[in-house]
Specification:
The protein is mainly alpha-helical and 90 residues long. The chain is built from 2 helices and no strands.
Length: 90
């Protein structure tokens, strides 16, 4: 039974040492890790930006805007909205 406890304590000790080494590595290299993450994020944003802005800058702006007239929500010449027949339920 003593040998089983010795094995358990050795495994626990090695686990604590491994965790301590990992924390130490991250603490010592934190600046390099942060810079690497920033560079990766900037590369991804730089690659995605032309695709996001391309559709917003090109094309006909009036093609997507609604105009008052037949079938629109505007009912009167003064721009007033129609009154619903049924209550909204709250």
């Amino acid at each position: 039974m003593q040998k089983v406890f010795n094995v358990f304590s050795t495994v626990a000790f090695l686990g604590v040492v491994t965790i301590g080494a990992g924390v130490g590595y991250v603490y010592v290299n934190k600046d390099a890790i942060v810079e690497g993450i920033k560079e990766t994020a900037m590369e991804q944003v730089t690659e995605a930006l032309p695709g996001l802005l391309g559709g917003a800058l090109g094309g006909d702006i009036n093609g997507g805007l609604p105009t008052p007239g037949v079938g629109s929500a505007v009912s009167g010449a003064d721009g007033s909205l129609p009154v619903p027949d049924a209550p909204l339920g709250f």
